[in-house]
Amino acid sequence: MLENYLKITFRNIFKNKVYSLINISGLAIGITCCLLTILYIQDERSYDKHHPEAYSIYRVATVLKMGGDPSRMATSPGPLAFTLKQEYPEIEQVTRLVGSPDQQKQVVVYNNNTYFETDGYLADSTFFSIFAYTFLQGKANSALQEPNTVVLSETMAQQMFGSENPLHKIITINEQDYKVTGVFAQPETKSHINARYFTSIYSSGLGEYINATRDFVGGNFIYTYLKLRPDASSKALEAKFPAFLEKYAGEKMKAAGVSKSHFLQSVPDLHLYSSLEHESGANGGIVYIYILSSIAAFVLLIACINFMNLSTARSGKRAKEVGMRKILGAYRSTLIKQFLGESLILSCFAIVIACGLTLLCLPVFNQLTSKELSIASDLHFSTIAAIIGITLFTGLLAGSYPAFYLSGFQPIKVLKGLMVNHFAANFLRKGLVVFQFVVSVCLIVGTITMLSQLEFIQNKNLGFSKEQRIIIPLRTKQAREVYGRFRNEISSDAGVVSVAATSSYPGKFYAYDNNFIPEGKREDEATNCKINVVEPGLVETMGYQVIAGRSFSKARYAADKYKSVMINEAAARQMGWQPSEAIGKHLKSGWDGKDWNMEVTGVIKDFNYESLYEPIRPMAFMLEEPGWFGYAVVNAKTENWQNLLASVEQSWKKHNQSLPFEYAFLQDQLNQQYEADNRFFTTITYLTAIAIFISCLGLYGLATFTAEQRTKEIGVRKVLGASVGNITLLLSKDFLKLVILGILIASPLAWVGVNTWLQDFEYRVDVNITLFMMAGLAAILVALFTISFQSIKAALANPIKSLRNE
């Protein structure tokens, strides 16, 4: 019996090659999308799962309100960790981690060789008792106990020392000496802490400040982690935080007019569920997971719909087979099993092809998503189970309705040529076509919206000049000390308009902030401002617009330093002033361990110094010594960039013999903020194209079948004088009606979806009717192109051939 069913299945496949090809290829493409998405989701969900008792590890995050909107930060103050452990016995262990807030790269020197290193952290000696790292050399529990010690990753150690034993060697990081006390293997598993090396938090410099401070309100730049005891409840501990803050920071918060709270985040959930300020790295997003999963599922569903539609449309071809089997004693359940079995066999063919397509597509998919996925390394039990599950699900879903529909034929009627349930099948078929185009139109609207938003981001006036600005990092004390001579030398180049130094620039994290008390207001009415430490000329070099008062100038440097401040419009608004009213007003602030009373000498028009996801927050500009500067900004105007950069590099090497020259264009730095969005948009575009392609495959199959069914009608109409255009319109209009209905249903759904996505952007495009008209027109043109091929072919056929047997 089984052998007989297999023979019939293969005969049907080869007898109906076009329809079989449409079904198998559609299912294979849909399954490929699902397999790639499963690999992506597995990778995204694998972060920080490898640590012992991972779900007992939490990060303490902060909500801080200092006038204006509250800030939700991934960081917290220095003394918090060990004070919490002292107060609450349910905390088993704590540790702290500190990134480099103002420089992405650190200068590392060993044996007169200079390296630029990224992802360096200060860490407590308890760090490796919470987080799992495999030590190749040294001991994890004691590696960071002493000041000025460092633990290196295996790749960094090999790069610097080669085959030489790195233990107890002295290396210099940012002009400070450290002894190597350990080497850890580069983790194969993913973590939100992507570290190349760790230095002891007890080291001199920043480490001394962290361990000396007892401020529980300010200094929120430290990642605090807790490991709870097995019987402890994170919610119960979190509920104790308000009383803890009142005990240790209540008076200071009240005096400063600050409100603050802490909450816990499970470490394995950070990558997908956390998007706070000052994250330790670029996290993923659960919303993107939901969107990709939904689209991949819809692509597979569209392929299954094609299978159902073509199977039910061609049911007449197998009606007599069903009738004969029933007359010969076949039960309906037996026929259902046969048709589901045929569907499962097609699904097995599709899954084999899909596995091959997945291997072929992985390099492109990895490039789109910036990942290193591979079936070999990511083929877990769950992946195998998913492949089996998708095969069964696809086969059963695609074959379910055809199986129940075909097995329900009444043998007497079908053998007489009378079809049953024709209206129900036809209605369902049309409904499924409408559903396909509802999904397709929603995806087209989403793709066009994302493209419009990304173009808006790239073309929006950010309030400064981003073109032809070169950023040169000043990473060492020496580079900052010789900066003045370097600036003067390159300023004489004909391609250089101006040069100025700054502590940070738009698109880069602003490490400094402070409270400013406007004159006539209380301390609890202070405005918290980001601080940009600059030299005279920076405002003009960056192209910021001064809308009231004056800018800093070299002639007034001595008079303005520590006595004058410039603010942006957002700061003036929050202080209750119009820009013109702010000029001449005084602000009180504590800065660099002293109290200052500064006069507002200028107001700068608001500019987007953070990404367009964020609103423009208050900012203050202050003059300082070169030691505060992190970057030099070059405003250039040249057609020959190669010569200009070569000239600047030559001047750099003249003054910084031991420090390699590096630079970046401001526009490129700004675009990096939206790399994840660009990758996501490209991925969605491909998936949308695939969904439309599979929908068109099904539409093509239905159009082909319709043309076959109406061959004699077309012949009669042609004999009676119908033109090719008349017949093409006749065959196309029914399908176009379904497409238009799909557009009408999809439009409100797409409107809700794109507006929900755009809510994440503080600055965004408007969604208007033009967008839906474009998407609808695109869907109609694609459908018309698909249908018209078969319609025109049928209309051009010789009517004599179709009518010769009549």
Automatic annotation (TrEMBL):
**Topology of this chain in the membrane:** Multi-pass membrane protein
Principal localization?
Answer: membrane
Q: Name one Pfam family in it.
A: MacB_PCD
Asked if Secreted is a keyword of the record, the answer is no
Which part of the chain is the MacB-like periplasmic core domain? 20-241
Q: Name one GO cellular component term.
A: plasma membrane
Record localization: Cell membrane
Domain (ABC3 transporter permease C-terminal): residue spans on this chain: 294-410, 688-795
Query: Transmembrane stretches, by residue range?
Result: 21-41, 287-308, 344-365, 385-406, 427-451, 680-702, 735-757, 769-789
Can you name one GO molecular function term for this protein?
Answer: transmembrane transporter activity
Does this UniProt record's set of keywords contain Cell membrane? yes
Q: Which InterPro entries does the protein's record reference?
A: ABC3_permease_C, MacB_PCD, Macrolide_Exporter_MacB
Q: Which UniProt keywords apply?
A: Cell membrane, Membrane, Transmembrane, Transmembrane helix
- The lineage's top-level taxon is Bacteria
Q: Which PANTHER family match?
A: ABC-TYPE MACROLIDE FAMILY EXPORT SYSTEM PERMEASE COMPONENT 2, MEMBRANE COMPONENT OF TRANSPORTER-RELATED
Give the protein's recorded name. Answer: FtsX-like permease family protein
Q: Which organism is it from?
A: Rhodocytophaga rosea
